[in-house]
Amino acid sequence: MVAKGEWVRIYKIILQPSERAPQVPDDTKKVSLELWVKGFLMNDAEMGENVEIETVTGRTEEGKLIEVNPYYTHDYGKFIPELLVIDKQTRDIVFGGDR
Amino acid sequence: MTKANDYASVMARKPEIMIKSVGIDYSKFESGSIAFDYEKMMKETGYSLKEMQNIQYSVNVGNTPILELKNITALARSCAPKGKGARIFIKDEACNPSGSFKARRAATAVYHAKKLGYKGVISATSGNYGAAVASQAAIAGLKCIIVQECYDSKGVGQPEIVEKARKCEALGAEVVQLSVGPELFYKFLLLLEETGYFNASLYTPFGIGGVETLGYEISMQFREKYGKDPDVVVCTNAGGGNLTGTARGLAKAGANPQIVAASVSLAGLHMASDTAFNKKSFTTGHTGFGVPYSSWPDRSDVPRSAARPLRYMDRYVTIAQGSVFYMTEALASLEGLEKGPAGNTALAAAFALSQELDQDKTIIVQETEYTGAGKHIQPQLSFARDNGIEIIFGDPKEEIPGENIILPSHPSLLKATDIDLDHMRKSLIKTAMATYHVENPTKEDILFLAEETKTNVEYVKAQILARG
């Protein structure tokens, strides 16, 4: 169970594929317009349940409970060896081989 | 009575929501035909340069240093014909509180929102502007919501956009994240209606006027340090506000450098496509925004955009993605500076353009932005590789956006490609006539279109005739 007051992330569909704007390309029209937002859980609930949250601006949003204490995992990515080639090339050109 | 919240009903309420959330009655500036009084709009609804400087300096925005990139200049000279290779400079806008020049736009917008008594601000942006609005709202004690296009239908987010979400939240904003699609605007309108907050649009006179201080500072700092104005100013171009504001500020300083717009070429990738979303390695500063917004500025979230870049640009060039990545790495390896993507688009352009100019000329890139997890070139390239984009050394001319990223195998292959400005000017005139259903433009319209396209009355008349 997730307790009332916990910091959570919810998910919901705000437009079904059939409700999408006329100008969107075909591949986008096949999928829903989805929304994610974070806030404080307003009542005890189980993961996956439809819940209400209060966001940091004091708004109420409802949606499916998907994360508790959500956090970011973006990083510096995997190593790209090509960058070392650029380093060496530019330094060789500007400073010569013996720097 | 509860209002209908389906897409069409909400979009139909756009005009009333806009007037309430921006506090500008745009009808005051309309002529009833194609023309509207741009300068009157800027004057009556914006702030004077002095007022904007005072607003910005009071919240630690602006007065960023200009740095000379001597080693990048040396690299350009090694590729240039004898005697060519203008000195390259950057204005280090990453020194602003939120890490980019967007703090200037946000400072004036948030100041204005607070003055008018709004309790909060909302902005629809996946970019640095969100962080800037969040930062300024934090200082002003206003609530802040950022609406962001963040994920594709598989829930995968571009690392740079995810980083910007993190930064907005770190600065106290509520971040509403959406999947790909222009209906972001639909949710944006609903939020404005629900909260009654101020629409801190990028395209209001406050948003654009806020950048005028940047152009003005460039001239003042250059005159003080080098005894003259720069010869060329290069602006990364997306929605056009950066270029418009900078050019207006330079003009207010009495400077008249060549103004060059630069965008990353994402030719062939649809901006609202779910499947193309994560095949782009740039989230802004690219042709997907730059070309349509320059050709027709009034496609923004306000009735009349204050960003009208075609009025000010002398030249518009595109740069391949791999060339920007190469230059970003060169900035680190030669100048000891790690900076984020947007300014480096203009830097790559400046590197190429410098080689056309004599060595005593000066060329300035008017912004840098912060970098870090998600925004650094390593996660950008790594994300591209994971999405099946081939990363190779070769000739940037052969780069196909969405398929490969070609890092120049030698810096001499890094080139700027000119966009035909004449074509854009004609397109703007044509769109203006079609949009306002005008067959015979008035004298005022013709004068307006000449200003819009940085041409003259004869040019506009010739285009109208050619069209008929």
In terms of topology, how is this protein built?
The complex is a heterodimer of chains A (99) and B (468).
Chain A: E1 7-15, H1 26-29, E2 33-41, E3 50-54, E4 60-68, H2 82-95
Antiparallel strand pairs in A: 1-2, 1-4, 2-3, 3-4
Chain B: H1 7-12, H2 14-22, H3 38-45, H4 49-58, E1 66-68, H5 70-79, E2 87-91, H6 102-115, E3 120-124, H7 128-140, E4 143-151, H8 159-170, E5 174-179, H9 184-195, E6 198-199, H10 205-226, E7 232-236, H11 241-252, E8 258-264, H12 287-295, E9 315-319, H13 321-335, H14 341-354, E10 362-365, H15 377-386, E11 390-394, E12 404-408, E13 417-418, H16 421-435, H17 443-452, H18 457-467
Parallel strand pairs in B: 2-10, 3-4, 3-6, 4-5, 7-8, 7-10, 8-9, 11-12
Antiparallel strand pairs in B: 1-2, 9-13
Helix pairs in contact in B: 4-10, 6-7, 6-10, 7-8, 10-11, 13-14, 17-18
Verbal overview:
- The complex is a heterodimer of chains A (99) and B (468).
- Chain A is an alpha+beta fold.
- Chain A has a domain at 7-74.
- Chain A is built from two helices and four strands.
- In chain A, strands 1-2-3-4 form a four-stranded antiparallel beta barrel.
- In chain A, strand 2 and strand 3 (50-54) form a beta hairpin.
- The model of chain A has no long low-confidence stretch (mean pLDDT 95).
- Among the domains of chain B are: 57-97 and 207-418, 3-Layer(aba) Sandwich (Rossmann fold), CATH 3.40.50.1100; 424-467, no CATH class.
- Chain B contains 18 helices and 13 strands.
- Chain B has helices at 7-12, 14-22, 38-45, 49-58, 70-79, 102-115, 128-140, 159-170, 184-195, 205-226, 241-252, 287-295, 321-335, 341-354, 377-386, 421-435, 443-452, 457-467, and strands at 66-68, 87-91, 120-124, 143-151, 174-179, 198-199, 232-236, 258-264, 315-319, 362-365, 390-394, 404-408, 417-418.
- In chain B, the strands form three sheets. Chain B has a seven-stranded mixed sheet, sandwiched between helices. Chain B has a four-stranded parallel sheet with strand order 5-4-3-6, sandwiched between helices.
- In chain B, helix 7 runs parallel beside helix 8 (159-170), helix 13 crosses helix 14 and helix 17 packs across helix 18 (457-467).
- The mean pLDDT of chain B is 94.
- At the A-B interface, strand 2 and helix 2 of A face helix 5, strand 4, helix 8, strand 5 and helix 9 of B.
